[in-house]
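User: For my dataset I need records formatted as: sequence, then structure tokens, nothing else. Please produce one.
Assistant:
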Amino acid sequence: MSGLMISNYARRMARLSANIFTEVARPTDAQSMKVIQVMKEKPLYLRPEVVDYYPPHNEWGLLMARLRKLGLYRDEHRDFKEEMRRLRALSGKVKPKKGEGKRSRKI
């Protein structure tokens, strides 16, 4: 029966120890323990498996543009778009720049 009787000092020391080592100080139910476990986890914006899930597309795009400008990478889709734009300009089907449209030509 002496095992069930905890002195006030022992109870306070156990609570202090739980406080120091980030454990629950008092006995709690399962629902409260779930909340405690969720709050113990790292936030999503600090977890590398969440932050680094997608590849860095912006950095890769800038890198590929720079390599294309240097002639080390060939982007066929962009080459095609530039060629089509050049052919439209040769046939006179290019949109006028801002301020150079039909209405600005009237005198």
